[in-house]
Each structure stands twice: as C-alpha cells, then as structure tokens.
From TrEMBL:
<dbReference type="InterPro" id="IPR002109">
    <property type="entry name" value="Glutaredoxin"/>
</dbReference>
<dbReference type="InterPro" id="IPR036249">
    <property type="entry name" value="Thioredoxin-like_sf"/>
</dbReference>
<keyword id="KW-0676">Redox-active center</keyword>
<protein>
    <submittedName>
        <fullName>Monothiol glutaredoxin-s15</fullName>
    </submittedName>
</protein>
<dbReference type="GO" id="GO:0005739">
    <property type="term" value="C:mitochondrion"/>
</dbReference>
<dbReference type="Pfam" id="PF00462">
    <property type="entry name" value="Glutaredoxin"/>
</dbReference>
<dbReference type="InterPro" id="IPR004480">
    <property type="entry name" value="Monothiol_GRX-rel"/>
</dbReference>
<feature type="domain" description="Glutaredoxin">
    <location>
        <begin position="67"/>
        <end position="131"/>
    </location>
</feature>
Length: 159
C-alpha cells in the first residue's frame, strides 16, 4: 500500500495576511507566458556537438544502471510530490537505484527531457527503458508491475 502523505492545508495552519502580500509583491510570473531564461533548455539543437555529448552521457547512465531516477532533490532529501513518492516506492520495493538531481544538473534535465520528449520530473528508467512519470509509475507500484520490472531488469535489492 502506498504511504499516505500529510497535508498542511488544514484550517489550523494559516499564514499571516502580510505573508501573502509579500508573495504577491515579489511574484515574477511572466504575463507573456514565456519562461525565465534560467529555465529554458540548454540544448538548442539536437544535432549540436554539445547536445550529442549530453545525450551520450545520459544514455550511458541509463544503460549502465539497472534503476535510474531523475528527480528534483536527492535520494535522502527528495523534493515534494512525486519526487518524494517515487523515492518512497523504490525504498518500499527495497530496490537500489541511482538518483540524479536535475535541480543541480541542468544538462541531465535537458538530456532526459530530450530522450523521453516529456517535461515532467521525476522520470524513472528500469533496465535501460523509460518506465514513466507521475501517476503512471505509482499505478505500476500498486498493481505489482513495478516489482516485476525491477526483477526482470536484474535490479539489485537491499537486504
């Protein structure tokens, strides 16, 4: 069974009104719909030498490790939401996995997005194959398919 997550959005927890005014005052949501330059992909052309180098690095990581999770955060301190859920699920399965923190490695983020053509993070690879993102991976855990994929891939397990 998937662990339940605690929500802090109950009526007992309220931020002072001034906090919301501060967030509003310093908000930088673009009206044009364009992303901030820091969040734009570094891979401009998939045929560039730089892009080929990044893709080769990411493909090598995926092929050399039975289980690879591209996430925001680390295995010990995953980000919120699905990042945390994926780490918990892999830990519940007792699977050893390599976690790549895309918030610290923008090339890894660009590379994995270029490979899967999906912008969402976290992304899970097992046995060199893309397993999925978000709810799809959690559904595979609930049905037992994730365990089967881990076993078939030759993944290592913690005793």
């Amino acid at each position: 069974m998937l662990p339940q997550f605690i929500s802090i959005t109950n009526s007992k927890f309220q931020l002072p009104k001034q906090t919301f005014q501060l967030f509003k005052q310093f908000s930088s949501i673009p009206i044009s719909g364009k992303s901030h330059p820091d969040f734009l992909p570094k891979i401009k052309s998939p045929d560039s030498p730089e892009a080929k180098k990044i893709l080769a690095r990411i493909n090598k990581i995926i092929k050399q490790n039975p289980v690879v999770l591209f996430l925001k955060g680390t295995q010990k301190t995953p980000g919120h939401g699905y990042n945390r859920a994926f780490v918990q699920v892999l830990n519940l399965e007792k699977a050893k996995f390599l976690g790549i923190d895309v918030s610290e490695d923008s090339e890894a983020l660009d590379g994995v997005r270029a490979i899967t053509k999906i912008d969402e993070i976290p992304q899970l690879f097992i046995g060199g194959k893309f397993v999925g993102v978000g709810k799809d991976v959690l559904d595979k855990y609930r049905t037992g398919d994730l365990e089967d994929l881990l076993i078939e891939s030759g993944a290592e397990f913690v005793d």
